[in-house]
Amino acid sequence: MRILLTNDDGIYAPGLKVLEEIARQFSDDIWVCAPSEEQSGAGHALSLHRPVRLHRHGDRRFAVSGTPTDSVNLGLREVLDIAPDVILSGVNRGANLGDDVTYSGTVSAAMEGTLAGIRSIALSQVYSRATLASDDLFAAARGWGARVLEPIIAAEFAPRTLVNINFPARTPEAIKGSRVVRQGFHDYSRSTVVKGTDPRGQDYYWFGLDVIEHTPGHMTDLEAIKDGYISITPLKLDFTDHASLASLADQYQKTRG
């Protein structure tokens, strides 16, 4: 089985090293094509107004001077002569839960693989102040990664569907298991904009997020993580609201007379 690895934290990110350890439990045919620098929050951006460079960093290991989407594109079009069986993206340093997946370079790399018709999986490690201070931020992903991936890799994926996995900020022993759950939604007001002034007197703005909240009574990826479970969420790239098609078309025809 051929596996292509990528991420949005960059070629030297510790989470990518963890992902490679996990992937090698399934195959020795491992390839890496990741951004040369951190691209967190890049979303599904594709570089169109500047050239992108591809640099070899060793055997089957390449860095791209662009986004996670660029990395998957070049990995499939330039690095590999035969398409991989699976694309794994991560392990991201931080959660990719709820509607935050729309900003995520990690999830977007998996989206790009999905658009190419390849089974693609995004993996992220939630962290807290306690786990940040620990010796191994990625202990949960390292301890549970292969166990969680095995049935997913073996499964048949529906067209244009990827899988988003998040590991809770717990030791491997404290994780209760895994749950297949739907995507949650955050309160938009949780985002913050911090205004400051640089040494030259110019204003700048720093975007941030408050602590992740949950929606009681709704079993989503947010609740699964809060309750100490690994969240597994299939995401479909068809954004069409099929339930609204008929009513919107009817209203449109009425408006047009």
How would you briefly describe this protein structure?
By secondary structure, this protein is α/β, with parallel strands linked by helices. The chain is 29% helix and 26% strand. It is built from 7 helices and 11 strands.
Could you describe the 3D structure shown?
The protein has 257 residues and is of the alpha/beta class. It has a single domain (2-184, 214-256), classed as 3-Layer(aba) Sandwich (Stationary-phase Survival Protein Sure Homolog, Chain: A). 29% of the residues lie in helices and 26% in strands. The protein has seven helices and eleven strands. It has a nine-stranded mixed beta sheet with strand order 3-4-2-1-5-6-7-11-8, sandwiched between helices. It has a two-stranded antiparallel sheet with strand order 9-10. The longest helix is centred in the middle third of the chain and has 16 residues, at 139-154.
Index terms:
257 residues; globular; nine-stranded mixed beta sheet; Stationary-phase Survival Protein Sure Homolog, Chain: A
